[in-house]
Amino acid sequence: MDIQARKIQFIREFLKLKNEDMIAKLENLLQQERQKQYQSMNEPMSTETFNSMIDRAEDDSKNSRITSAGDLKNEIDTWS
């Protein structure tokens, strides 16, 4: 069962609930998990990760794997 089917199945089961305590527990669980996800996304990166990103950026620059600001602006102008 793929993620979309699982979500639909969960929603169907959720809509059948009549117990307010269970609904409150599910709401709290969702809120807690979202907070954990938000916190993990906003943790400072390690020095090693930062240096690795710099090394990759320098390598991209040396190997002409970059887009100039002007080229990017021109490309964005074609989006509308």
List the helices and strands in order. Answer: HHHH
Number of helical elements: 4
Structural class given helices, strands, pairing?
A: mainly alpha
Number of distinct beta strands: 0
> What is the makeup of the main sheet?
none
State the end-to-end distance.
37 Å
Low-confidence stretches: none
Whole-number total of structural domains: 1
For the residues shown, what is the average pLDDT? 93
The global form is: elongated
Note the beta-strand portion.
Answer: under 5%
> In percent, how helical is the residue content?
over 70%
* Rg: 23 Å
Folded structure, characterized:
It is a single chain. This protein is mainly α. The protein has one domain (3-77). Helices cover 76% and strands 0% of the residues. The chain contains four helices and no strands. It has helices spanning 3-16, 20-41, 47-62, 69-77. The model has no long low-confidence stretch (mean pLDDT 93).
